[in-house]
Amino acid sequence: MVKKLHSVVRETRPAGVEFKLANFGKVTAKVVPVDVTVYEVGHGYRVDVAGKVEVEPERRLYKAYLCSPNTQMLPVEFINTNYGYLSEELESLRLEVYIEIRVYASETSSDVDGAPCVNVVWTHGIRMQLQR
Q1: pLDDT tens profile 58-107
Q2: Which residues partner with 130 through β-bridges?
Q3: Residue 70: which residues within 8 A CB-CB, separation 6 or more?
Q4: Domain assignments of the chain as residue spans, ordered by start
Q5: Buried b (16+ CB within 10 A) or exposed e, 22-40
Q6: Rounded to the nearest 5°, which phi and psi values hold at 59?
Q7: Which of 80, 88, 93, 98 has CB atoms 3.0–4.6 Å from 7's, for a disulfide?
Q8: Closest to 54 in 3D by CA, of 116, 114, 120
Q9: Whole-angstrom Cα distance, residue 74 to residue 99?
Q10: pLDDT for 97-112, tens place per residue?
């Protein structure tokens, strides 16, 4: 049985990475958590996190910077990385959600209009603590 739980968000911090690409120079990508839903599933929990992706290039050349997920690309090496964090409290439980960003690009990757682009992917994991 799946049951939606009421939770209170106590703390939030966006995930962010910095990297360099020939087409854009230094690029900053962030994932800002905007909504969290917690479900009780059997004896465990499922946490759904909705986030807003922001990409800020040093050189603004185009309108859009995100590629289709079907484009063939390689992982980008980061200059700097910060994990995102979200802390929530339920009745007798404290959940911590950690967010990690991965960025993929290639020298030849482009969007439908032929402009260079990157692919930003993010994942999250949870850690639970019982409150006494």
Answers
A1: 877 666 677 877 777 889 999 999 999 999 888 778 889 999 999 988 77
A2: 93
A3: none
A4: 2-130
A5: ebbeebebbbebeebebee
A6: -110, 115
A7: 88
A8: 120
A9: 20
A10: 999 999 988 777 777 7
